[in-house]
Amino acid sequence: MKKYFALSIFVLFTICAAAQSAPVKDPYTFGLPDAWRMERTSFPPPFAPKVKLSGTEEIRFPPGWGSPGSEQYWSMAYLLWLNTGQKIDAKVLEDNLQIYYDGLVITGGGPVHHNIPPDKLISTKVHMKKIKTEPDDLVTYSGTIDMLDYMAMKPVRLNVVGHIKACSSKTHFPVFLEMSPKPFTDPLWLDLKKMKKDFTCNE
Predict the structure, then answer these.
(1) Number of compact structural domains in the chain
(2) Is 56 helix (H, G, I), strand (E, B) or coil?
């Protein structure tokens, strides 16, 4: 009897250990170019709790993102891994990006809040429109974000492209946002778009 009990305990321990050591598979693959930085957080983020969309966000920052004078200044690529059942259109993107960037400017995404003089504050304005659908997109949007560059304390305009994508996941769907002050003809946009092309669903 003791032999069978010991054998049962051993089998149970082996199963539990195997389950704990099994790697957790990410629901998607989203590339990170060399020297770029990644941030992942829940969505809405803490600095913009009134954002109405829910899921997870990943941001890809090029090395020069925070360096004034850099060709990559304020350029970035987002993946919003959103819970299914949420409507996305130009108005939804406008409203949520305005809330997001107003919160980012005023509060900041890090542990130290921004201390912006009242005379420097400006309201974030977002304009998005549906454009010709790019290959592999369900819908494609383009627009602008006019906001305060809180690093340089002056207004900045970010050009934006948004991509609604299909995915095999039954619980989430991906939305890609690429942003830069650079015009759409600048070669930097090829780097921003490459990450969307390298994305794959794993669920």
Answers:
(1) 1
(2) strand
The answer to whether 109 touches 202, Cβ cutoff 8 Å, is no
Place of tokens 């109405």: 52
Tokens (6 digits) for 27: 């629901």
Over the stretch 82-138, which tens digit does the pLDDT of each residue have?
A: 999 999 999 999 999 999 999 999 887 765 677 888 888 899 999 999 999 999 899
Condensed to tens digits (0 to 9), the pLDDT of residues 33-72 reads 899 999 999 999 999 999 999 999 999 999 999 999 999 9
Residues of the domain holding 150 = 33-201
Return the residue matching tokens 């598979």.
25
DSSP string across 110-150: SSSPP---GGG----EEEEEEESPPTT-SEEEEEEEEEEET
How far apart, in whole angstroms, are the C-alpha atoms of residue 13 and residue 30?
A: 35
* Total Cβ atoms within 10 A of residue 120: 12
CB 9 within 8 A of CB 3: no
Q: Which amino acid does the sequence have at 99?
A: I
Continuous segment of H or E residues that includes residue 40? strand 37-43
d(CA 144, CA 74): 13
Q: In this structure, is residue 151 part of a structural domain? A: yes
The reported pLDDT for the residue numbered 77 is 96
Provide the whole-model pTM.
0.84
Q: 144 near 157, Cβ under 8 Å?
A: yes
